[in-house]
Specification:
about 425 residues, two-stranded antiparallel ribbon, 13 helices, 12 strands, about 10% strand
């Protein structure tokens, strides 16, 4: 792992927090791995491993609730992934939102948000700084609470990594943020249909104040946490819409440009990962081909923020078509500017989600497993076909999403 995660000159080797790497350094780390024909290993499912350890995450805030209520258990999940050989581990902040105090069920006794404590159990309501459910919050209040919660999620991952030492200490930590669809229910992450929740027919997503506020509060909080060195990169994942991805990237740049009283603040490295269309191979959920997505996000406008594009929370069988789209749009006779961008592939286990029962059905035993599918893809595309003069055309990040485990990721890490 150390050949990939070398410290930059600004890093303090005695620091207990993540190294504060920028976009340029992150791309350089990815480039080195590409030139050596090595993959970058991302972790697997966070919530699945929490459930395996006994945490009930049947809650609107999902992994965020687990981090707030059971930090010790969440640290064990992260430790398992570090020990499995991950280069990048994500903190459990996917469902982060600023109006968290309005949601019921966060604490069985008082309906308030428990805060991070020394115990794995929630603190008493008296120790909780959040207002009761139903309270209306200002934009500043929502942003501030996002920052507090995200910091707690990230600190769990940092402590888990630093407690292991050795090569695990060189791994990077990514802050995970889901799309607006993760808050609306009904599989919004997979359809991108926000009409019932916020987006009237005919209105552009960038014009919707509800969606803008949702993303602005969380991204402002994330950028503040990045400035404090709490994580190394930002993972905007399970995104169903290209226009939402563009909106989030532009918000990151605008927030950073306006920070510190207009003097600007460091831009965090960002990976954007999409859900896939259920019937159109090689297309994201909103219908655009992955080649179109790669081309749009690979424009010069985003070169100072974007370090990766990918797909996640999809059937492993659908990843093959995504790789073909990327290979098709990357220049074959020379490494071009888009080769700086990593391709992130982290599908589900292959099990089928049953929305009517909120459960997972059995995987088709005739289909390849998550690990087998990715191994086959690596052998098929990564070295011989998707290469220029024997060098892979883009850096490759490989991991798992829903229902995948540390054992799956360990098997992927063995390939690198």
């Amino acid at each position: 792992m150390t050949d990939f995660m070398e410290r930059d000159d600004r890093a303090d080797s005695s620091s207990s927090g993540p190294r504060h790497r920028g976009v340029v350094m992150c791309k350089e780390l990815f480039r080195r791995r590409r030139l050596r024909g090595k993959i970058i290993v991302l972790d697997g499912a966070f919530a699945t491993e929490c459930q395996r350890l006994g945490v009930n995450i049947d809650h609107p805030l999902w992994g965020v609730f687990a981090c707030l209520a059971y930090p010790d258990v969440c640290a064990r999940v992260h430790q398992g992934y570090f020990e499995a050989g991950c280069d990048v581990v994500t903190c459990g902040s996917y469902q982060l939102r600023g109006d968290v105090g309005r949601l019921p069920g966060l604490d069985a006794n008082a309906g308030v948000v428990p805060v991070l404590g020394a115990s794995s159990e929630p603190r008493t309501p008296a120790a909780c700084p959040y207002p009761a459910p139903g309270t209306a919050f200002t934009l500043q209040e929502e942003t501030s609470r996002c920052q507090v919660i995200l910091a707690q999620c990230a600190q769990i991952a940092v402590r888990a990594r630093n407690g292991l030492g050795g090569t695990a200490h060189e791994a990077m930590i990514a802050a995970s943020l889901g799309p607006f669809g993760c808050t609306v229910g009904g599989g919004g992450e997979f359809t991108g249909d926000y009409s019932a929740a916020a987006l009237p027919p005919g209105m552009a997503l960038r014009e919707c104040e509800t969606i803008l506020r949702f993303h602005r509060t969380r991204l402002t909080a994330a950028i503040a946490c990045y400035r404090e060195g709490l994580f190394d990169m930002l993972l905007l994942e399970t995104t169903p819409r290209l226009d939402e991805a563009l909106l989030m990237l532009r918000l990151v740049k605008d927030i950073c440009a306006a920070g510190d009283s207009g003097r600007g603040v460091p831009i965090p490295p960002v990976i954007v990962s999409f859900t896939l269309h259920p019937s159109r191979a090689g297309c994201v959920a909103s219908g655009e081909t992955f080649a179109t997505v790669w081309t749009e996000l690979g424009k010069p406008e985003f070169r100072d923020v974007l370090v990766g594009i990918g797909c996640n929370c999809c059937d492993p069988a659908g990843v093959d078509a995504v790789v073909k789209e990327v290979v098709r749009c990357v220049t074959r006779d020379a490494i071009d500017a888009t080769s700086e961008i990593a391709l992130a592939l982290y599908p589900n286990s292959g099990e089928v989600y049953l929305s009517d029962t909120n459960s997972w059905g059995a995987r088709d035993e005739r289909a390849a497993t998550h690990v087998t599918s990715l191994h086959q893809l690596l052998e098929k595309f990564w070295l011989p076909s998707a290469s220029v003069a024997g060098v892979p055309c883009v850096p490759l990040i490989v991991g798992g999403c829903c229902r995948t485990t540390a054992a799956d990721v360990r098997a992927l890490a063995a390939w690198k």
